[in-house]
Every structure is written in C-alpha cells, then in structure tokens.
Amino acid sequence: MPFQGLDAVSGLVMLVRWIRGQPLFTERDWPFLFCHSRKEVFSLRLVLRFGGLWLLVVVVGLAIAFYILPYRLGWFVVCLRF
Questions:
Q1: Global pTM?
Q2: Which of 13, 21, 62, 68 holds its CA 20 to 30 A away from the CA of 52?
C-alpha cells in the first residue's frame, strides 16, 4: 500500500494543471510514472511482451473454464490446493 499517497499526489497535480488550463500529462511525467521515457515504454519489445503475457492469461483462463470448471467448483478448489 505504499503507492496510495502517490496516487493522491498525482491526482492533485493533474487537478491543478486542469484548473490552470495546462496539459494534464506532459513528456516530463513519463519517467516519473514509468521510470522510462515514452519511447521506451511503447517499444516493440515491451508491446510483444505484454501481448505474449496477455495471450498466456487468456489461454490459462480458457483452459480453466473448459476443462476444470465443468467438474464442479469443489474439484477446482482441490486443484488449486496442489
């Protein structure tokens, strides 16, 4: 929970910028939020990594939905214990 204060501060900064009529998100904000520049955040390597992990999550979710859940929730809970 250490990032709750960071969320509040980010929200206040964006609110003050909105009131002043300034852009809410600038180039200088990227390193603060993501520890990388915008160009590095949207690099091909990171997009492919995100896509691969997303596909893995979808495949595992479908496997659970089609192969484990039809045998009732009790069997699913037993499988999660091991």
A1: 0.47
A2: 68
